[in-house]
Protein backbone atom coordinates (compact mmCIF):
# COMPACT_ATOMS: atom_id res chain seq x y z
CA UNK A 1 0.00 0.00 0.00
CA UNK A 2 1.45 3.31 -1.09
CA UNK A 3 1.56 6.20 1.32
CA UNK A 4 -0.09 9.48 0.45
CA UNK A 5 3.35 10.99 -0.26
CA UNK A 6 4.20 8.15 -2.65
CA UNK A 7 0.89 8.57 -4.46
CA UNK A 8 1.50 12.31 -4.91
CA UNK A 9 5.00 11.70 -6.24
CA UNK A 10 3.68 8.95 -8.55
CA UNK A 11 1.17 11.38 -10.06
CA UNK A 12 3.72 14.19 -10.33
CA UNK A 13 6.30 12.03 -12.10
CA UNK A 14 3.63 10.53 -14.39
CA UNK A 15 2.41 13.97 -15.41
CA UNK A 16 5.86 15.40 -16.07
CA UNK A 17 7.18 12.32 -17.90
CA UNK A 18 4.06 12.32 -20.08
CA UNK A 19 4.83 15.89 -21.06
CA UNK A 20 8.49 15.04 -21.78
CA UNK A 21 7.52 12.08 -23.99
CA UNK A 22 4.83 14.11 -25.75
CA UNK A 23 7.40 16.73 -26.74
CA UNK A 24 9.97 14.13 -27.80
CA UNK A 25 7.56 12.09 -29.94
CA UNK A 26 5.99 15.14 -31.57
CA UNK A 27 8.51 14.90 -34.44
CA UNK A 28 7.79 11.18 -34.95
CA UNK A 29 4.55 10.92 -36.90
CA UNK A 30 2.23 8.08 -35.91
CA UNK A 31 4.01 7.23 -32.64
CA UNK A 32 2.38 7.70 -29.25
CA UNK A 33 4.08 7.05 -25.91
CA UNK A 34 1.83 7.09 -22.86
CA UNK A 35 2.95 6.81 -19.25
CA UNK A 36 0.34 4.43 -17.89
CA UNK A 37 1.65 3.92 -14.34
CA UNK A 38 4.45 5.11 -12.08
CA UNK A 39 5.36 3.32 -8.87
CA UNK A 40 7.89 4.87 -6.50
CA UNK A 41 9.65 2.75 -3.88
CA UNK A 42 9.07 3.67 -0.21
CA UNK A 43 12.53 5.28 0.06
CA UNK A 44 11.76 7.35 -3.09
CA UNK A 45 15.00 6.14 -4.68
CA UNK A 46 13.53 4.28 -7.66
CA UNK A 47 10.55 4.99 -9.89
CA UNK A 48 9.23 2.13 -12.03
CA UNK A 49 7.64 3.69 -15.08
CA UNK A 50 5.25 1.63 -17.24
CA UNK A 51 4.90 2.85 -20.82
CA UNK A 52 2.21 2.08 -23.34
CA UNK A 53 3.54 2.56 -26.87
CA UNK A 54 1.45 2.82 -30.03
CA UNK A 55 1.92 1.20 -32.51
CA UNK A 56 2.90 -1.81 -30.45
CA UNK A 57 5.18 -3.13 -33.23
CA UNK A 58 7.62 -0.32 -32.43
CA UNK A 59 7.33 -0.88 -28.68
CA UNK A 60 10.50 -2.86 -28.05
CA UNK A 61 12.60 -0.61 -30.29
CA UNK A 62 11.36 2.58 -28.64
CA UNK A 63 11.72 1.11 -25.15
CA UNK A 64 15.38 0.27 -25.85
CA UNK A 65 15.90 3.81 -27.15
CA UNK A 66 14.31 5.24 -23.99
CA UNK A 67 16.43 3.00 -21.77
CA UNK A 68 19.63 4.18 -23.47
CA UNK A 69 18.60 7.81 -22.94
CA UNK A 70 17.47 7.38 -19.32
CA UNK A 71 20.04 9.87 -18.00
CA UNK A 72 18.84 12.71 -20.20
CA UNK A 73 15.20 11.89 -19.39
CA UNK A 74 16.01 11.94 -15.67
CA UNK A 75 17.80 15.28 -16.13
CA UNK A 76 14.75 16.73 -17.93
CA UNK A 77 12.53 15.40 -15.14
CA UNK A 78 14.82 17.01 -12.56
CA UNK A 79 14.52 20.36 -14.33
CA UNK A 80 10.72 20.16 -14.04
CA UNK A 81 10.28 18.77 -10.51
CA UNK A 82 13.49 20.00 -8.86
CA UNK A 83 11.57 22.44 -6.66
CA UNK A 84 9.15 19.77 -5.38
CA UNK A 85 11.55 16.87 -4.85
CA UNK A 86 14.88 16.98 -3.06
CA UNK A 87 16.17 13.82 -4.77
CA UNK A 88 15.08 12.77 -8.24
CA UNK A 89 14.52 8.98 -8.22
CA UNK A 90 16.30 6.62 -10.60
CA UNK A 91 14.03 5.68 -13.49
CA UNK A 92 13.35 2.12 -14.64
CA UNK A 93 11.20 1.79 -17.76
CA UNK A 94 8.97 -1.19 -18.52
CA UNK A 95 6.61 -1.93 -21.37
CA UNK A 96 2.96 -1.97 -20.29
CA UNK A 97 1.34 -4.59 -22.50
CA UNK A 98 -2.00 -4.65 -20.71
CA UNK A 99 -3.76 -3.02 -23.69
CA UNK A 100 -2.36 -5.67 -26.04
CA UNK A 101 -3.53 -8.33 -23.59
CA UNK A 102 -7.04 -6.85 -23.48
CA UNK A 103 -7.12 -6.57 -27.26
CA UNK A 104 -6.14 -10.23 -27.58
CA UNK A 105 -8.87 -11.31 -25.14
CA UNK A 106 -11.43 -9.22 -27.02
CA UNK A 107 -10.34 -10.76 -30.34
CA UNK A 108 -10.63 -14.28 -28.89
CA UNK A 109 -14.07 -13.57 -27.46
CA UNK A 110 -15.27 -12.17 -30.78
CA UNK A 111 -13.92 -15.23 -32.56
CA UNK A 112 -15.81 -17.52 -30.17
CA UNK A 113 -19.01 -15.50 -30.61
CA UNK A 114 -18.73 -15.74 -34.40
CA UNK A 115 -18.22 -19.51 -34.21
CA UNK A 116 -21.26 -19.93 -31.94
CA UNK A 117 -23.50 -17.92 -34.28
CA UNK A 118 -22.58 -20.07 -37.29
UniProtKB/TrEMBL annotation:
Example of a GO biological process term: maturation of SSU-rRNA
Coiled coil location: none
Keyword set includes Cytoplasm: yes
GO cellular component: cytosol
Domain of life assignment: Bacteria
Pfam families tied to this protein: RBFA
Protein location: Cytoplasm
Keyword annotations: Cytoplasm, Ribosome biogenesis
GO molecular function: ribosomal small subunit binding
Matches recorded under HAMAP family: RbfA
NCBIfam families found in the cross-reference section: rbfA
Function of the protein: One of several proteins that assist in the late maturation steps of the functional core of the 30S ribosomal subunit. Associates with free 30S ribosomal subunits (but not with 30S subunits that are part of 70S ribosomes or polysomes). Required for efficient processing of 16S rRNA. May interact with the 5'-terminal helix region of 16S rRNA.
Stated family: Belongs to the RbfA family.
Binding partners and assembly: Monomer. Binds 30S ribosomal subunits, but not 50S ribosomal subunits or 70S ribosomes.
Protein name per the record: Ribosome-binding factor A
Organism this protein belongs to: Dysgonomonas mossii DSM 22836
